[in-house]
Amino acid sequence: MTLQNRVTPQGQIVAVPERGLFIGNRGILHDADRQLGRRRWALKAWLICRLEFRGRHRVVMTPRRYTELFFFDEATAIAAGHRPCYECRRDAFHDWQRAWRKAAGLDTPPTAPAMDRQLHLERVKAGSRAQRRWRARLGALPDGAFIELDGAAHLVLRGGLRRWSWRGYGPAMTRAPSQTVCVLTPASSVRVLEAGYRPRLHRSAGAVYGLGALEDNAQV
Predict the structure, then answer these.
(1) Per-residue buried b or exposed e for 9-20, using 16+ beta carbons within 10 Å of the residue's own CB
(2) Which of 5, 43, 46, 64 has its CA at a distance of 20 to 30 angstroms from the CA of residue 80?
(3) How crowded is residue 93: how many other Cβ atoms within 10 Å of its Cβ?
(4) How many angstroms separate the Cα of 207 from the Cα of each of 88, 198, 201?
């Protein structure tokens, strides 16, 4: 049974066979039959976690336990409004925290709840479940950000765009840097990317990103 717990860069939670490279959660979203209800979050802490951590094993979508969400790669999760988990990805969390502090010009490191509150304002439209988008000049966006072009999500990477799908990123394409585009990644997360945070990408993005190849998208 393919469960509805895969998250797209546009923030949709869908049912597809591909599991992805990261897991995360937003609290309990499913019922006793492992079906989603109307809500798309129960907590403001939207996390990006490792698929494996300290040998822990879970039955996915166990009743009264948090809903496991899966992401194609980390840039996808960030576009959907998530940030690294402190427990299982502590190094990534501290990298994110340092970049946030630098981007915001803070005297002290921001707390996780403070970052979550700000992200929640930027990722969800008030009074709805819809993803909040914003507009920016394409040439001003950093590597790892996502935009929507012709109804599809595209990764910004090395001056080009790579169309996203569950099977992998498409070939590089170019658009005028001066073009104004619809940005999916929350504004604060874009600033974190600008300040030096480097999300882990699926191997189909290519080795040029300098992060090393990751395994192919796994199946459940």
Answers:
(1) bbbebeebebbb
(2) 64
(3) 19
(4) 25, 13, 10
Q: Which of 108, 96, 104 is nearest to 47 (CA)?
A: 96
Please state, in angstroms and rounded to a whole number, the distance separating the CA atoms of residues 184 and 167. Answer: 20
Half-sphere exposure of 50 (CA within 13 A, CB side): 14
Question: For residue 67, what is the DSSP state?
Answer: P
In this predicted model, what pLDDT tens digit does every residue of 160-197 receive, in sequence order? Answer: 999 999 999 999 999 999 999 999 999 999 999 999 99
Q: Hey, CA dihedral for 83, 88, 94, 95, is it positive or negative?
A: negative
Parse the chain into domains and list their residue ranges.
6-127+186-209
